[in-house]
Amino acid sequence: MKNVQKGFTLIELMIVVAIIGILAAVAIPAYSNYTKKAKFTEVTQATQAIKIAIEGCASEVGDLVNCHDGVTTSGVPADVGTFGKYGTSVTTAANGVITATGNAQVDSLTYILIPTYDSVKGVSWDSPNSSAGGTCHAANLCK
Fold first, then answer.
1. What is the pTM of this model?
2. pLDDT of 35-74, one tens digit each?
3. C-alpha to C-alpha distance for 42 and 1, rounded to whole angstroms
4. Is the distance from CB of 135 to CB of 110 less than 8 angstroms?
């Protein structure tokens, strides 16, 4: 009579475990960066209300010189301290430059927006992908 093999050999099981280990080693860092990018979205979205206020100020005044926090007639909101789960601050500097900073859970990275004003086109924002976009670009957390 022939013996019929049932089940898997030890080597076959070890190969399967090794393959799963390799896949996990590749997937975990990618997933970690994905979740950090999702968390950093909160920081980038915190700039939206200030962007709108600066655009309104620039269209009324005709330039960006006084469109920042500290000018009571500009309509730009005051700087924000800790916000949400992942943000530490959103500030507005001279000429409407906005800087948002995340907390340690998103590596304390910054997101910077630099406006330019044209009397015909209005306000346009410097792309965060440029060198002026803050430290989040180098970490690939903002676009």
1. 0.77
2. 999 999 999 999 999 999 999 989 888 888 888 887 767 7
3. 69
4. yes
DSSP 78-90: PPB-SBTTTEEEE
3-state SS class at 112: strand
- Phi/psi region, residue 97 (left: phi>0; alpha: psi -120 to 50; beta: rest), is beta
Residue located via tokens 């304390």: 108
The pair of structure tokens assigned to 73 is 């007639």
Q: Is the Cβ–Cβ distance between 142 and 113 less than 8 Å?
A: no
Phi, psi of 25, rounded to the nearest 5 degrees: -65, -30
Give the pLDDT confidence of 74-109 residue by residue, as tens digits: 788 888 888 999 999 999 988 889 999 999 999 999
